[in-house]
Amino acid sequence: MKFLLSFIFLLSIICNVSFAYDLRIIDGDTIKLNDDRIRFAGIDTPEPKQICTLDNIEIFCGNLATVVLKEKIGNEIVTCEREKELDKYNRILAECFVKGQSLSSYMVKSGYAFAYRYFSDKFIEDENYAKQNLLGLWAMQFEYPWDFRKKK
C-alpha cells in the first residue's frame, strides 16, 4: 500500500498530474467515491434504521452492515467496474473491489447483504453459503430490506 501510494505520488510529480481519492461509505451497499455516488449492483443491505433481533436483543442491522463494509475496506483503495445504467435514484451501479476481491460478494457471503434476485443472480451462491452457515444476519431474525422499505 505504501509503495502504491508512493508510486502514484511520484508519477503525479513526473507527469504533472494530480491524484485525488476521496472515499465515503454511505451504508452497506452504497459508497461515494470522489464525486460519484455508487450503489453496489446485485446486492441489498438492511436500511440504517432497520432492526434485527439476536437473542431478544435489538440490533440496527443496517448500521452493522455499514460497519462491516468499513472494516473490510479499511484504508485500502477501492476500484469499481461500472454498469451501463443508473439506478432509479441516479446512482452509478457498479461492482467494487478491494485487492481484487468483490465487496458485493464479500458482504453477501459474510451474511451482511442479500443477493438482490430481482436485478441479478450473480450472488445467490454467496447468499446460500451465508445462510447455510448462519453467518451475519442469517443468525438473526430479520426482515428483507425490500420488504422493510415497502412498509415505509
Automatic annotation (TrEMBL):
What is the name attached to this protein's record? TNase-like domain-containing protein
Q: Which organism is it from?
A: marine metagenome
Q: Which residues form the TNase-like domain?
A: 24-140
Pfam families assigned to the protein according to its UniProt record, in alphabetical order: SNase (PF00565)
Leader sequence range is none
Q: What SMART domains does its record include?
A: SNc
Q: Which InterPro entries does the record associate with it?
A: SNase_OB-fold_sf (IPR035437), Staphylococal_nuclease_OB-fold (IPR016071)
Task: Tell me the PROSITE patterns matching this sequence.
Answer: TNASE_3
Among Gene3D superfamilies, the record links this protein to:
2.40.50.90
